[in-house]
Design goal:
Radius of gyration: 15 Å
Distance between the termini: 38 Å
Strand content: under 5%
CATH class: Mainly Alpha
Structural class: mainly alpha
Oligomer: single chain
Number of helices: 6
Shape: globular
Length: about 110
């Protein structure tokens, strides 16, 4: 029973976060942090088609955004697009050479 309650709370909190990030994006479509955070929340729900264009827009607006590249790499990895995932994780390491998650993902590929 406790797991169900936790999961229900988690889902509710994530849905509320998505609503807040969507509102932020509506108010400022170029707000990179809101785009990346909304995409991250979608990734947690495995809503890849919704997350991808947000991350691509974030990268277009801020080509130095490590979180956008990392999340897009994770998305590609989950979709079985390993070459694209490698490109994204390499970009993360180019921008932040000591990024441990990107290093781990690249070692797995």
């Amino acid at each position: 029973m406790a797991l169900f309650i936790y999961r229900s709370y988690y889902d509710t909190a994530l849905d509320e976060a998505i609503s807040a990030f969507k509102q932020a994006v509506r108010l400022d479509p170029d707000l990179v942090e809101a785009l990346v955070n909304l995409a991250s929340a979608y990734l947690m729900q495995q809503r890849f088609p919704q997350a991808q264009p947000l991350l691509e827009t974030a990268i277009r607006l801020d080509a130095q955004n490590i979180a956008a590249y990392g999340n897009l790499g994770y998305l590609y990895l989950q979709q079985g697009q390993t070459m694209k995932a490698k490109q994204m994780f390499k970009k993360v390491l180019e921008l932040s050479p000591n990024a441990p998650q990107a290093q781990q993902y690249l070692q797995q590929l």
